[in-house]
């Protein structure tokens, strides 16, 4: 078989491979868009089941001082706003016990996911800890924020005040 014939034969294979690759990427993105997370107690949380609520996914690490400082405010926010679900995703820890101890010492009551790099990468780029992703009551990603957030920051965001554009970027 000459070089031209090999090239002609490989073109359909390249096209098929590219189509397969694109379908896998769009499937991965679809899964990340409708995430399904299991917390440390075995309870599942799925974005599509949270319609009508704001959802804040907060990535944190037990060794991160700004993360630990942020946890009590997020817990208070969760307790005060029945239209908001806060889910904490612990990442970059060595042992599960580190996460359990941090949760116990801060007395937080919202769901905690024992996360990993795969879960984090499903949500997108993170420039540091903590990083939060905010979803509207319709399930649309409003944006993400790198760094700590205060209870007031999040309340302004869910009230859709002008500060929202500054806090959460797409």
SSE blueprint:
Layout: H1 3-33, E1 36-38, E2 44-46, E3 54-60, H2 65-80, E4 84-90, H3 96-106, E5 112-114, H4 117-123, E6 131-135, E7 141-146, H5 151-158, H6 163-167
Parallel strand pairs: 3-4, 4-5
Antiparallel strand pairs: 1-2, 3-6, 6-7
Description:
By secondary structure, the protein is α/β, with parallel strands linked by helices. Helix content is 46%, strand content 20%. It has a 5-stranded mixed β-sheet. A two-stranded antiparallel ribbon has the order 1-2. The longest helix has 31 residues, at 3-33. It is globular and about 35 Å long.
- Ends distance: 51 Å
Q: Could you give a short account of the major beta sheet?
A: 5 strands, mixed
The gross shape turns out to be globular
Strand content range: 15-25%
Task: Count the E strands.
Answer: 7
Name the poorly predicted regions.
Answer: 2-32
Brief synopsis:
The protein is built from six helices and seven strands.
Which keywords apply here?
5-stranded mixed beta sheet, disordered N terminus, two-stranded antiparallel sheet, 170 residues, alpha/beta, 6 helices, 46% helix
């Amino acid at each position: 078989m000459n070089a031209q014939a090999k090239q002609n034969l490989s073109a359909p294979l390249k096209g098929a491979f590219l189509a397969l690759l694109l379908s896998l990427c769009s499937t991965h993105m679809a899964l990340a868009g409708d995430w399904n997370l299991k917390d440390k107690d075995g309870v599942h949380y799925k974005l599509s089941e949270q319609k009508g609520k704001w959802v804040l996914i907060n990535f944190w690490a037990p060794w991160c001082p700004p993360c630990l400082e942020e946890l009590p405010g997020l817990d208070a926010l969760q307790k005060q706003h029945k239209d908001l679900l806060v889910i904490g995703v612990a990442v970059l820890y060595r042992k599960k016990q580190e996460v359990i101890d941090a949760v116990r010492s801060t007395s937080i009551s919202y769901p905690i996911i024992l996360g990993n790099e795969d879960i984090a990468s499903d949500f997108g780029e993170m420039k540091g800890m903590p990083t939060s992703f905010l979803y509207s009551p319709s399930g649309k990603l409003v944006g993400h924020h790198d760094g700590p957030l205060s209870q007031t920051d999040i309340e302004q965001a869910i009230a859709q005040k002008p500060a929202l554009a500054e806090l959460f970027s797409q």
